[in-house]
Specification:
Oligomer: single chain
Number of domains: 2
Strand order of the largest sheet: 6-5-7-8
Distance between the termini: 59 Å
CATH class of the largest domain: Mainly Alpha
Strand content: 5-15%
Radius of gyration: 22 Å
CATH superfamily of the largest domain: 2-methylcitrate dehydratase PrpD
Largest sheet: 4 strands, mixed
Order of helices and strands: HHHEEHEHHHHHHEHEHHHHHEHEEHHH
CATH architecture of the largest domain: Orthogonal Bundle
């Protein structure tokens, strides 16, 4: 009787055997847009105080200078992935795969940049590894992500290691057997809780939830390449991570129809520097303001229709850190109404004491909506109902925010976001170079010039007080 290969083995075979010529053109083009967004987000994230703390640690290691830290020099491939992954997840601006509730870009892309540079890979090889990393992380996440979150585990921190190890294994040229072991090793490296949502001050660990799995993914691939084995059923086995961490036993969809479509096409690029759960709420507030302009002082109450994921751990009315501000439903609603949620500095320390924002925040109340829950996590919907002091009631509902995968930002808007968030980091000439380099990546024999530019970016636009 033929024994069905394990999930790790099925995924490993797909990753090892897929060639760039099998990729649809639309997937390659979208991958480049997502990669450009990652570069911009990681660059601005690299200027934060917490990212600099991780950078300093990496540079102090004195490791072999083979891979570039954005804006800071060169270190080992694993340390570069750790630092750049942390930077990319530093401002809540990184891409999102809604069905898995995870952020693949802040994990997979630091890995492919670090390894492609260290190994002298082509741009085409980088893109292929990136797409495969997204595929593996997001496929596993479609099945496990929501259940991990229900158990108090952060989806990116736990799922990211699978995307990282798949991308690393591809660029390192692992065999099917080696990558099967690497995926099994990665399963034993999952980790990261949601407790940061309960502590409104000491929560910078969440910024590491991009860098840590990126680092571990490379480590798992290196160990497997050196003959270290792991259970082939470390995902689906009776003591595997699916049952132990997520309490899920039906995992057939993870490896079904591989290569028929690509999860990267279900990834969205963020417009707003806050938890993705709130983006539809932001746009519903904007719709009310456009329909019937009103003064902030005229608002009596704001009711928000939401899912459990929007509400649980998100109802802090007086943020005490940047992280809690970006994760606070009431505060984000206030920023949407009276400030600019596209700008990371709208959530910095000076905003927490802004009485105008705090007064608006205190008028916000949440209402759980079973209709929205039924659509979740495929769709992150929300509605708002704003009552004015004169008795008028304004209401708007948004099921798909303007940057969802179903309603994606076009290339011009992706490039505009890149220019906006790197305007104080890169000169116009360097911005043009980076855009051109990324958008023609599949034609590049090396990424050396691109990495040299990213390594010499300025780091002077954001201070330690805020974002």
């Amino acid at each position: 009787m033929m024994i069905k290969p394990s999930i790790s083995a099925q995924l490993a075979r797909f990753v090892v055997e897929l060639g760039a010529d099998a990729l649809p053109r639309e997937v390659i083009e979208r991958a480049k847009e997502i990669l450009l967004d990652f570069v911009g987000v990681a660059l601005i994230g690299s200027t934060t105080a917490w990212s600099r703390g991780v950078q300093d640690l990496a540079l102090d290691e004195g490791a072999r200078p083979e891979s570039t830290i954005f804006g800071s020099g060169r270190v080992s491939r694993r340390l570069a992935a750790l630092v750049n992954g942390t930077s990319a997840h530093s401002l809540e601006l990184d891409d999102t795969h809604e069905p898995s509730l995870s952020h693949p870009g802040c994990v997979v892309n630091p890995v492919v940049f670090a390894l492609a540079e260290a190994k002298g890979c082509t741009g085409q090889e980088l893109l292929l590894a990136m797409i495969l990393g997204y595929e593996v992380q997001c496929r596993i996440g479609r099945v496990l992500g929501r259940h991990l979150l229900a158990e108090g585990l952060h989806p990116t921190a736990n799922l990211g290691v699978f995307g990282a190890v798949a991308a690393a294994g591809k660029l390192m040229g692992l065999s099917i057997e080696q990558l099967t072991d690497a995926i099994g090793l990665a399963a034993s490296m999952m980790g990261g809780t949601m407790e940061f949502t309960r502590d409104f001050e000491r929560n910078l660990v969440k910024r590491l939830y991009g860098g840590l799995p990126a680092d571990r993914g490379i480590l798992a691939a290196q160990l497997a390449g050196n003959g270290i084995s792991a259970p082939r059923t470390n995902i689906e086995g009776s003591c595997g991570v699916a049952q132990v961490l997520a309490r899920v036993t039906d995992l057939g969809n993870i490896s079904m129809h591989l290569g028929e479509s690509y999860e990267l096409m279900s990834v969205s690029i963020k417009r707003y520097a806050c938890c993705k759960q709130f983006h539809s709420m932001i746009e519903a507030i904007s719709a009310c303001q456009m329909e019937h302009p009103f003064a902030i002082e005229a608002v009596r109450s704001i009711e928000v229709g939401a899912t459990h994921a929007m509400i649980d751990g998100h109802m802090e009315y007086r943020p005490r850190s940047i992280m809690s501000a970006q994760y606070s439903l009431p505060f984000v609603a206030a920023v949407a109404m009276a400030s600019d949620p596209t700008v990371p500095t709208s959530f910095e320390a000076s905003a927490w004491g802004d009485e105008k924002l705090l007064q608006i925040s205190e008028k916000v109340r949440e209402t759980w909506d079973p209709r929205l829950e039924e659509l979740y996590p495929e769709r992150f919907g929300a509605w708002v109902q704003i009552q004015l002091v004169d008795g008028q009631m304004l209401k708007a509902e948004v099921f798909e925010s303007s940057s969802s995968a179903q309603n994606p930002l076009g290339r011009e808007k992706v490039q505009a976001k890149f220019r906006a968030i790197t305007s104080n980091i890169l000169s116009r000439e360097k911005q043009n170079f980076v855009i051109q380099a990324v958008m023609s990546l599949e034609q590049s024999s090396t990424i050396t010039s691109l990495m040299e530019t990213l390594g010499h970016a300025e780091q002077n636009n954001i201070d330690g007080r805020g974002v």
